[in-house]
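Lecture notes, unit on binding sites. The following record was shown on slide 14. It pairs a sequence with pyridoxal-5'-phosphate.
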Amino acid sequence: MNDQPSDMRSPHAPMWRGLMHAYREFLPVTEKTPFVTLCEGNTPLVHAPRLAEIIAPDIELYLKFEGANPTGSFKDRGMTLAVSKAAEEGATVGICASTGNTSASAAAYCAVAGIRCVVLLPQNAIALGKLAQALVEGATVLAVEGNFDDALKIVRQLCDKHPIALLNSLNPYRLEGQKTGAFEVCDALGKAPDFHAIPVGNAGNITAYWKGYNEYHAQNRISELPKMLGFQAAGAAPLVLGHDVDKPETVATAIRIGRPARGDEAIAARDNSGGLIHSVPDAEILQAQKLMAASSGIFGEPASAAPIAGITNLAAQKYFSQARAELGRKPVVVATVTGHGLKDPNTAIQIGGEPQVVPASEEAVLRAMQLG
Ligand SMILES: Cc1ncc(COP(=O)(O)O)c(C=O)c1O
């Protein structure tokens, strides 16, 4: 048996070592930066023609499945860089407020780096899988009697006064890592999409994608920029309403945010790209979550389905037919599926329904299949 790991792999599939290695030239890393990585990134860009046929026949739809990252969400892209830089700067404690995915990711990367991780979560308002992740990954998990915005305020105050690494997307390294999602989309398509649809909560990710597209454009890796389509939940839509929301409410707990920290940048991404930020009601988000899973095989969490609900509405208003006529072909639309559906099993079971119980016999199964 050969003990060289490289010989164990197919020569056609060199090992992916994480986005910091792949996109190093675009990232603020130096020879002193330790690479704290779980080999994140390189997530699938899945063509979804069946889903498109149902919701928006005028588009070519692709799903960028960020649930395939090591902790099951896009947060790993920013966290690999943020924790690497924290380690470079000698941090011993990292902290974040979170609607769930940031805490799961921060806990994992801090575990790799040997940094103590403290996470502040809105009490009783995060999905079960995400809570389980942070707890099992060894973070100090504090359930704050308030919402995400309250928790983030405390985190900011603590980081102003103490030498603790801030791991929320206010940390610029988070966005630097997250922008690589846009690079991967362009690398996979060989160009930028015509539209990029994305859920918006604290507004870090839409800001990061727009930054990524602009950097690729500046380097002539793409010739056109996409229009950014952001989607908030109707009960937590400060950027659509034009003012903060004191008591944000939505089943999509990941985007249950009333004061987005990167709100101004999201508005700039919307306006500079010629895109839009709309809101979608919870019922449509849940319908879209089920439809996406059942017609594309991609099981995203509720927040990740907001763009699918939004695309459905835009298509009904003939938004894409106009783009199709202008382009002379179907516009290419990429939707970021930001987190894995398994993160939120309670909601999934609610929309999925109960299994049908049958006697343990061939006949009974055939009958249930309506074949016998
Ligand atoms: C699954 C999921 N989707 C979307 C978002 C929103 O991202 P952002 O806060 O960067 O707008 C989050 C943020 O927590 C998330 O966890």
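Take-home: DSSP finds 16 helices and ten strands in the chain.
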